[in-house]
Design goal:
- It is built from eight helices and seven strands; from the N terminus they run E-H-E-H-H-E-H-H-E-H-H-E-E-E-H.
- It is of the alpha/beta class and 220 residues long.
- It has one domain: 3-Layer(aba) Sandwich (Rossmann fold).
- The protein has a five-stranded parallel beta sheet, sandwiched between helices. It has a two-stranded antiparallel ribbon with strand order 6-7.
- Helix 1 packs across helix 8 and helix 4 runs antiparallel to helix 5.
- The longest helix has 16 residues.
- The radius of gyration is 16 Å and the shape is globular.
- The model has no long low-confidence stretch (mean pLDDT 89).
- This is Thymidylate kinase.
């Protein structure tokens, strides 16, 4: 039986990694066998090594399509020979929609539909990557998210407090707007939106994970 494939999405600082880990623990408490993935797969693929260099400012690709290709190839290299999984649920920290939002935000709004058509065809048809059954958008105010990024611990792919993308506040706002458009797009599949902050107050990681886990369980 094919496992339920869930992608956790959101701008930098939304808590995707923490939510992925917490949801895995909650689902396992319910007796489910859960696998997790995280993209980019830093230190494990050739494409991810190029992404690391880019995020550390060592080079900048010439277009959104070029950048998107690196992230797509990282997924393809990571997933080669892994499917089908012998588990009940796969929870993924970032997937194709992350690529769509972060690179689509670099384009004029009128070009987003064309970019999405190209990207979804490239990842799902040409590279043969599995489509997620459910995508969870962790919704957070970009200013709050930026402050949370600065509280992150040391990360493997950079020695800086923020990587190249995280330092640009306007870019993060554009990514948030792109996620809003993509989550309502007919090509983008099934979405659920989960609030990270409400009325200026952050919800606890436990509350967020419980909300996400409930939506996952409803799909099983």
């Amino acid at each position: 039986m094919k496992p339920l494939f869930v992608a956790i999405e959101g701008i930098d600082g939304a808590g995707k990694g923490t939510t992925t880990r917490n949801v895995k623990a909650l689902l396992e408490q319910r007796g489910l066998n859960v696998a997790t993935l995280s993209f980019p797969n830093y230190g494990a693929t050739q494409a991810a090594r190029s992404i690391e260099a880019m995020l550390n400012g060592q080079f900048m690709p010439t277009s959104a399509y070029h950048i998107a290709t690196l992230f797509s190839l990282d997924r393809a290299e990571t997933l080669a020979g892994k499917a089908p999984w012998d588990c009940d649920v796969v929870v993924c920290d970032r997937y194709t929609a992350s690529n769509a939002a972060f690179q689509g935000a670099r384009l004029p709004a009128v070009e987003l539909d064309s970019f999405l058509g190209w990207l979804f065809d490239y990842e799902f048809s040409r590279l043969g990557l599995p489509r997620p059954d459910l995508q969870i958008l962790l919704k957070i105010d970009p200013k709050t998210a930026s402050a949370l990024v600065l509280k992150k611990g040391q990360r493997d792919y950079t020695d800086k407090d923020q990587d190249l993308f995280e330092t640009d506040a306007r870019y993060q706002e554009s990514v948030a707007a792109a996620y809003d458009r993509i989550s309502a797009h007919p090509l983008a599949g099934r979405w659920e939106v989960v609030a990270v902050d409400s009325g200026g107050d952050l919800r606890t990681p436990e509350m967020i994970a419980a909300d996400v886990a409930e939506r996952v369980l409803a799909r099983l």
